[in-house]
Amino acid sequence: MDGAEFDYIIVGAGSAGCVLAERLSASGRHRVLVIEAGGTDRRFYVQLPLGYGKLFYDPSVNWLYATEPDPGLAGNRDFWPRGKVLGGSSSINAMVWIRGHASDYDDWETEAGPAWNWNAACAAYRAIEDNEAGGNDRRGSGGPLFISANRADLHPLVDTFLQSVEAAGLPRNEDFNGAQQEGVGIYQMTIRNSRRNSAARAFLRPAMRRPNVTVVTDAHVTKVLLDGRRAVGVEYRRKGVVQKAFAAAEVILSGGAIGTPQLLMLSGIGPAAHLKEHGIAVVADAPHVGRNLNDHQGLNYTWRMTVPTYNDILRPWWGKALVGMKYLIAGTGPLAKSINHAGGFFRTSPDLPRPNMQLYFQAFSTLVPRVGERPLLTPDPFSGLSIGLSNCRPTSRGEITLNSADPFVHPKIVANAFSTDSDVAEMLSAVKYLRHIAGQEPIRSLIAEELRPGPDVQSDADLVADIRSRSGTVFHPSCTVRMGADPATSAVDPDLKLRGVDGLRVCDASVFPTLIGGNTNAPSILVGWIGAERILKDAR
Predict the structure, then answer these.
(1) CA torsion sign, 133 to 137 to 139 to 144?
(2) What would the mean pLDDT of 306-316 be, rounded to a whole number?
(3) In whole angstroms, what is the distance from residue 499 CA to residue 505 CA?
(4) How far apart are CA 486 and CA 111, in angstroms?
(5) N or C: which end of the chain has fewer CB within 10 A?
(6) Which residues contact 403 (CB under 8 A, 6 or more apart)?
(7) With helix as H, strand as E and coil as C, how does 229-269 read?
(8) How far apart are CA 529 and CA 540, in angstroms?
(9) Residue 263 — φ and ψ, nearest 5°?
């Protein structure tokens, strides 16, 4: 296939890339090539909903990124898994479907115009979704992506958690993607018929049945090919062989918030001084490429319980066998779900106009480490329970730069977590709320002891030290090739066109103007959906 020409080349089969492949090929008029560095998503632990614990350190499906030592995280290097497989991170994530707060898209409109406002986003989500709970003026019905309402087969402690959070002052919310985001409730999931419903399954696999779609896996794109200042194709390496593909219309980068800025810089598009440091010829001085990195930071508080949790069934061999049989025979049990059954959104101050913190409830715990695995399938040897949280709109900013001009060397990730006083202050208020929840009935009577951070950690100084030492990413890096109307603050325009280069667009989480207050898989899919509309508007 070396030297073949297509209309559109999509680099990366992640959440946005899969949507692009489906929408750009739907008319049959356009030849679409999708190039993915990873391999097939048809793997047992990819399809098994709770199997993502096995994928956490698996290099066959995971880029296994790590940040630089971070002063905001007590000098720790944070581990950043990202999907290297068809479906991208939607094939290894926790499957929670959260659109974000409506005002997040008002923020996007301020930066990038009405094509990205809440009305446009809501209409797109309704077209995307096939929600098990049924359609209404906000939820979608009949779209390509099935969303599980996740109401059956929940752990009994979920209801205990919901009642306790209500007692702590947060109202019950039946739909976080509905009229209000604030409150506590059950998370909707991208799970269908007891299997992970990734972007690859919902969008790319149907597109692959079309004769005008070609998907190449295990192919690492090393640079964008340019004719002057126009993108004309890409160079990639597959099985040790360097090959090229050419685009008659456009090259679209969908490699994510880490991979996309790296590829742009390797291609001579980025901050000029930085590119020259690595001996890369500057095609376009694009100072915002790699900048403005934004990510949610989170941590768990953990308690030993006096009643059984998932630890009791997932830890012993006989329990593993039992839940395995339950899954294989009936498609039910803990293996058929994410571990985060429930959660919510709250404000650390009543003066805030919208929730600034997200809750996660897990009826299990993983304090005892297991080498080479995120121990979702082998939890602690006691009845444990965790309640986690993450900040919704941190003000700290990091950056992605090159470590080397070698495309196979990971880029340098500087997260700068908790580098602003406001991020630390709101996190301090938030962790106190976790203890407030644990002090409410009915959960209070079921707690034997607090294990992390433990009852000795009480002062603000000690709580902040614990936040810094135990926090880390909740896997939502974004905003590194920022979209906006103002060239002084953004790398791509509202049509996702890369400034300074023709025939090149970016369509993934890297273009978020601001970080969405919630999980980022849904807005990444949204970017692919609206992005396809912007691309087709200019199609020949």
Answers:
(1) positive
(2) 96
(3) 9
(4) 8
(5) C
(6) 409, 410, 411, 412
(7) CEEEEEEEEECCEEEEEEEEEEEEECCHHHHHHHHHHHCCE
(8) 19
(9) -65, -40
- In degrees, to the nearest 5, what angle opens at C-alpha 292 toward C-alphas 272 and 255? 80
pLDDT band at 375 (very low <50, low <70, confident <90, very high): low
Question: Stretch 408-436: mean pLDDT, rounded?
Answer: 98
Task: Give me the residue label for tokens 């290894």.
Answer: 92
Give the C-alpha separation, 198 to 203, whole Å. Answer: 8
Amino acid letter, 73: L
* Tokens matching residue 182: 């604030």
Instruction: Evaluate the omega torsion of the peptide bond into residue 407 and state whether it is cis, within 30 degrees of 0.
Output: no
Reported as a single tens digit per residue, the pLDDT across 68-92 is 999 999 999 999 999 999 999 999 9
**For the chain, first and last CA: distance in Å?**
24
Of 162, 131, 136, which Cα lies nearest the Cα of 149?
Answer: 131
Percent of the chain's residues with pLDDT above 90: 97
* Tens-digit pLDDT profile for residues 294-305: 999 999 999 999
**Distance, C-alpha 237 to centroid of its chain:** 26
Q: What span, in angstroms and rounded, lies between the C-alpha atoms of 369 and 116? A: 42
Report which of 130, 188, 153, 522 is spatially closest to residue 335, judged by C-alpha positions.
153
Average pLDDT over residues 177-190: 97
For the chain, give the mean pLDDT: 96
User: What residues are annotated to the active site?
Assistant: 476
Spell out the domains of the chain, with CATH numbers in brackets. 1-142+197-294+398-413+476-540 (3.50.50.60), 151-186+297-391+419-470 (3.30.410.40)
Encode pLDDT of 108-137 as tens digits. 999 999 999 999 999 999 999 999 999 999
Compute the distance between CA of residue 38 and CA of residue 21 in angstroms, rounded to an integer: 16
Cβ atoms of residues 90 and 16 within 8 Å: no
The H or E element that residue 55 is part of is helix 52-55
Joined tokens for residue 527:
């970017």
Helix (H) or strand (E) holding 304, with range, is strand 297-305
For the chain, counts of helices (H) and of strands (E): 15, 24
Dihedral, 106, 109, 114, 120 alpha carbons, nearest 10: -50
Distances (CA, A) of 410 to 11, 76, 92, 278: 17, 18, 19, 14
